[in-house]
Write a structure and sequence with these properties.
FAD/NAD(P)-binding domain, alpha/beta, MSMEG_0569 family flavin-dependent oxidoreductase, oxidoreductase, 25 strands, FAD/NAD-bd_sf
């Protein structure tokens, strides 16, 4: 017998090579651990394989000032809500955990039910040989009757191909490698992308006194607080988190929606790109291309529409809140709506010479791609997305968990992954029962 080291020094007995398990869960983040919790509750034997350590993605691929954008009380991992983690009442349910606290929360969750976890185990190939799934790993090969893919959607950092055309002296980092302003050489910084990462990193650099150039996109925004309550709490009360994908007219478009930008930093506040511009940040439209000969960066002429679109979404959420307050007669005093503090002029630049502007760094906040190249099964569409319904894929016995909008807005978050894990655990148990009956 061998022993695989678990978090906090705990020793999990039992090797992997040659083993046959009823269920293998790939990934030891919030999704994989949630699946493990629900399987354990049913007495179903399984293993959880984690390539690194629990919490690795949060600890190693987030910047120093990173924190959640949803209130802590919405961290509802199965059987282990935020209040269970803090325990003694010292926690701030309306606050926003910073990354070290998030890592601690996840590791405490794994300990809370003694997850059958193997850390430092990379899955290298998954196939099926008509008898069972065959899973090759860095610690040997095992078989499983059923498999849950819970490795998350944010696997390979994505940068545009034209990034290679920038001048050689310009330091380029993906958002997953950014830590703080001191990491970068002196000079101005171009941040590309205005999803949550782009906006928060731009703010981090701005607060550090760096001159920031920000290439915007079409990501929406949301106010932090409206009518006396966090907007995320309003949306929770309205039922937005529980709204299933089948309730939306265009499910595919919904599944690929970009998250609203806001921040939990320093207790939480709005991120207003117009205010950044008013205070000296340079805003541009979407980055379109980099000239191969000169390194000049070209932007689309869509800055105004990007800002207006983000504001329109924020105001539409306030409309939902107003309707909810009125329908229930809640005591939530009205407040003035947002008034833009800055408008782009007709002379908004659509190009940038990085050398002339003194830009020495570029942070690519352009997202991630999925990597299921190691899964040798017909479970994916033409874009490499798993074909599934609520996590049940087109391959019998194969499941996915933790995907954004897997079923609800909360599927990829601490708020909703427990419900998805419960749904899959029921299907897994039913499949086991059918096999026993046969």
């Amino acid at each position: 017998m061998t022993a695989t080291s678990d978090l906090a020094g705990h020793q999990l007995a039992g090797g992997l090579d040659g083993r046959h398990v009823p269920v293998a869960v790939i990934g030891g983040g919030q999704a994989g651990l949630s699946a493990s919790h629900r399987l354990s509750a049913r007495g179903l034997e399984h293993v959880v394989l984690e390539k690194h350590r629990v919490g690795h993605e949060w600890a190693e691929r987030r910047w120093d000032s990173f924190c959640l954008v949803t209130p802590n009380y919405q961290c509802q991992l199965p059987g282990f809500a935020y209040a269970d983690y803090t325990g003694d009442g010292s926690g701030d349910g309306d606050g926003f955990m910073v990354k070290d606290q998030i890592v601690g929360y996840l590791r405490a969750f794994a300990r809370s039910f003694d997850a059958p976890l193997h850390e430092g185990v990379a899955a290298t190939r998954l196939a099926h040989d008509e008898r069972s799934f065959v899973l090759s790993t860095s610690r040997g090969t095992l078989r499983a009757d059923q498999v849950v893919l819970a490795a998350g959607p944010y696997q390979i950092p994505k940068t545009p191909r034209f990034a290679e055309r920038l001048p050689a002296h310009v330091v380029q980092l993906h958002s997953s490698a950014y830590r703080n302003a001191a990491q970068l050489p002196a000079g101005e910084v171009l941040v590309v992308g205005t999803g949550q990462s782009g906006c928060q990193i731009a703010e981090d650099l701005h607060l550090a006194g760096r001159r920031v150039h920000l290439a915007t996109g079409t990501a929406p925004r949301v106010a932090r607080v409206y009518r006396g309550k966090d907007c995320m709490t309003w949306l929770d009360e309205i039922g937005h988190y529980a709204k299933g994908l089948d309730e939306f007219p265009d499910q595919e478009a919904t599944r690929y929606k970009v998250n609203h930008y806001v921040t939990g930093r320093d207790g939480g506040r709005d991120i207003d790109l117009r205010a950044f511009a008013r205070d000296g940040m340079r805003l541009y439209g979407r980055l379109r291309d980099v000239d191969r000969a000169t390194g000049t960066i070209a932007f689309d002429d869509d800055l105004r529409s990007n800002l207006d679109g983000a504001d329109a979404v924020a105001e539409s959420i306030k409309d939902l809140v107003d309707a909810h307050v009125d329908a229930l007669g809640l005591d939530a005093p009205p407040e003035p709506r947002y008034t833009p503090v800055w408008e782009p002029g007709d002379d908004t630049p659509t190009s940038l010479d990085p050398v002339g502007a003194g830009v020495t760094s570029v942070i690519w906040c352009t997202g991630f791609t999925r990597d299921y190249s190691w899964v040798d099964l017909p479970a994916f569409d033409g874009r490499g997305y798993p074909t599934h319904h609520r996590g049940v894929t087109s391959v019998p016995g194969l499941y996915v968990l933790g995907m954004p909008w897997q079923w609800t807005w909360g599927s990829g978050r601490f708020r909703g992954v427990a419900d998805d894990a419960e749904y899959l655990a029921e299907r897994i148990q039913a499949r086991v029962a059918r096999k026993v009956a046969a």
